[in-house]
Amino acid sequence: MIHSKYFILGLGLILQGCATPAWQSTNLQDYLQPYIGQSADHIEQNLNLRNIGFQTLKKPEKTNQHLIYTVLRPINIPVPIAQSYGDPSSSMGSSIRLGSVSTSQQSYDVNFYCHIIFKLDQQQIARSINYEGKAC
Q1: C-alpha dihedral, 97 to 110 to 49 to 31, nearest 10°
Q2: Terminal CA-CA length for the chain
Q3: CA dihedral angle for residue 31, residue 35, residue 40, residue 46, rounded to 10 degrees
Q4: What confidence tens digit (pLDDT) does each residue in 76-130 have?
Q5: Are strands 66-78 and 107-120 parallel, antiparallel or unpaired?
Q6: Other CB atoms within 10 A of residue 23 CB
Q7: Mean pLDDT of all residues in 51-71
Q8: Which of 2, 6, 26, 70 has the most C-beta neighbours closer than 10 Å?
């Protein structure tokens, strides 16, 4: 009995791991930490967020003080639809239940953004990283 509980727990963890998107399984802060102390040019040439499962928008924005990457996280939100069950003419009435659907016609897409901001010093060396946005 005890072994079956561990088996079920282990199987559940494995299945959850397979269902976890790549952007969640990669710890972004740990991945970016080695870029602290590197030049902005080196970061632009070597950092490829798509390789670790992130969807990025355009090239990074570069100013004298910042190097900014924009990461996009698209989310599909189903629209709840009321569904009636039972016979509305009966004395018991009918029940209404909210359900969700998975077709693209009955849902809408939302894009959440995360801005990864490398703060640069006067020599264009990254000194820190800040994160802004709902997808961070």
Answers
A1: -60
A2: 42
A3: -60
A4: 888 777 665 655 565 555 555 555 545 556 788 888 999 999 999 999 999 999 9
A5: antiparallel
A6: 16
A7: 93
A8: 70
Domain assignments of the chain as residue spans, ordered by start: 23-77+109-132
Per DSSP, the residues of 3-37 read: HHHHHHHHHHHHHHHHHS-HHHHS-HHHHHGGGTT
pLDDT in tens, 5-54: 544 544 454 544 444 444 444 588 899 999 999 999 999 999 999 888 88
Task: For residue 112, give the amino acid letter.
Answer: F
Q: Cα-flanking dihedrals φ and ψ of residue 88, to 5°? A: -65, -20
Q: Do residues 74 and 136 make contact, with C-beta atoms less than 8 angstroms apart?
A: no
